[in-house]
Design a protein that fits this description.
Blueprint lengths: L1 E6 L1 H13 L3 E7 L10 H10 L4 E3 L6 H7 L4 E5 L7 H4 L5 E7 L6 E2 L2 H7 L4 E8 L8 E10 L6 H25 L6 E3 L8 E2 L15 H11 L6 E7 L2 E14 L11 E4 L6 E4 L4 E9 L8 H4 L11 H12 L1
Parallel strand pairs: 1-2, 1-4, 2-3, 4-5, 6-10
Antiparallel strand pairs: 5-7, 7-8, 8-9, 11-12, 12-15, 13-14, 14-15
Helix pairs in contact: 1-6, 5-7
C-alpha cells in the first residue's frame, strides 16, 4: 500500500521502518516538534525519511498545501501521537482513511496518558488498539487491530513503551495485510457515546508529587506510572538545612499493611546489601530501590547512601514557610 507517516515517538519510527521493509510505499514522513518524553526527534524522522527516500516535513499544520500534496492519492495515513484531532478534510486525502494506534481498549481509555492512568488505576492489562480515525472525534471508529499486555504490580510505563515499540509495528503490518484482503475488515466499532466509554486527560509533571499518607499501593503505582521517559514521581527531603527534590525511579511494596508505628514518609530502614530504603506510607511499607536528586545526573541506591532512620521524606508547608522566612532574616 501507499502510506504517509504522521506523528511522533519511537513506536511510529519503528512502524515506518518495518512497513517499508515489508514492501509498502512510504510516500511521505510528517512530524512536529517532539514532546520532552519522546526520545525520537524530528531529526531522527528526517534521517529515516532520507534513508527510505521519502519526502520529509516538520510542521504543525496539516492544512498546508505542502501536506495536501504529499498526502493526496495515498491509500492510508499511519498515525501515532499526532498533537491534534484529524478533521474530515484530512481523512479524505487518503483512499481508505487514517489509521491511528492508541494505548487503550477503546472505547474505554480514550484521550491522553492512557497507559499512565491504567497503571495508576491498578489495571491488570493494557490494550494497544489500531483504528480508523473519524473526523473531529477522539479515539473512536472502526477498530482493526488489538494486542494486549498483562500487567503485574511491578510493570512500569518504561516496560509498556518498550513492549509497544516492538508490538505496534507488527500490529500495523498485520492490519494492512488484512485490509489488502478485505478493505471492510472490522474487529469492533468504538462508539464515542458507548456506556463503557470514558476519557483520560493529560498528566502534568506536578502530578508526580508523592503524598506519603496515601496507601502504599497508590504511591507505588504513581512511581511506576511516571518513571522514564517521564519526569518521575518526586518528594522533598530536608538535608543539612536545605530542601532537596528527590525523584523516585524504582520501588516495590514490602508490606501492604503494618502494625509498626511511624509517621508517613519516615525512613524506617536502610539496607546496604540490597540498596533499598524502606519508607512508612499511610498503611504499609514501601521500598525505594533507586532514586536521584534533581540537581544530580546519576541515580543512587538510597539504602547505601542514607545511614539514618532519623529522617523523613516530604515536608510540611508550615515547616517550609518557616525555613524560607528564617533564611530571609
Amino acid at each position: 500500500m501507499q502510506l504517509v507517516i504522521i506523528g511522533h515517538t519511537q513506536m511510529l519510527y519503528n512502524t515506518a521502518l518495518l512497513l517499508h521493509q515489508q514492501g509498502h510505499q512510504v510516500n511521505a514522513v510528517i512530524t512536529a516538534e517532539a514532546a520532552p518524553e519522546n526520545n525520537c526527534t524530528g531529526e531522527d524522522f528526517q534521517k529515516l525519511a532520507d534513508s527510505i527516500e521519502a519526502p520529509f516535513l516538520l510542521t504543525n499544520n496539516l492544512d498546508s498545501l505542502e501536506v495536501i500534496e504529499l498526502c493526496r492519492g495515498s491509500d492510508v495515513g499511519i498515525s501515532i501521537n499526532w498533537k491534534t484531532l484529524f478533521h474530515e478534510r484530512h481523512i479524505n486525502l487518503f483512499r481508505l482513511g487514517i489509521l491511528n494506534a492508541h494505548h487503550g481498549d477503546l472505547p474505554k481509555y480514550r484521550g491522553n496518558a492512557c497507559s499512565n492512568w491504567a497503571i495508576i488505576e491498578g489495571d491488570q492489562s493494557i490494550t494497544a488498539s489500531v483504528h480508523f480515525v473519524e473526523g473531529d472525534k477522539l479515539d473512536c471508529g472502526r477498530i482493526v487491530g488489538k494486542r494486549q499486555l498483562r500487567l503485574n504490580e511491578n510493570t512500569t510505563i518504561t516496560d509498556i513503551y518498550s513492549w509497544s515499540e516492538k508490538v505496534l509495528p507488527e500490529l500495523f503490518v498485520q492490519v494492512l495485510d488484512k485490509l489488502q484482503s478485505d478493505e471492510s475488515y472490522t474487529l469492533k466499532y468504538a462508539d464515542l457515546d458507548s456506556s463503557e466509554s470514558f476519557r483520560c486527560y493529560p498528566r502534568l509533571p506536578e502530578y508526580g508529587f508523592i503524598e506519603w499518607n496515601a496507601s502504599v499501593k497508590t504511591i507505588h503505582n504513581l512511581i511506576r506510572a511516571t518513571c522514564y521517559p517521564f519526569s518521575g514521581a518526586y518528594t522533598y527531603h530536608v538535608c543539612e538545612g536545605k530542601v532537596r527534590k528527590l525523584i523516585v525511579i524504582k520501588s516495590r511494596i514490602v508490606q501492604s499493611q503494618t502494625k509498626d508505628l511511624a509517621m508517613p514518609g519516615h525512613v524506617i530502614k536502610n539496607d546496604k546489601n540490597s540498596g533499598e530504603s524502606w519508607i512508612k506510607s499511610g498503611d504499609g511499607i514501601l521500598a525505594l530501590a533507586e532514586c536521584r536528586y534533581e540537581n544530580e545526573t546519576e541515580a543512587f541506591l538510597p539504602g547505601q547512601r542514607w545511614t539514618s532512620i532519623r529522617m523523613t521524606l516530604g515536608i510540611r508547608v508550615e515547616d517550609w514557610i518557616y525555613m524560607i522566612n528564617t533564611q530571609k532574616t
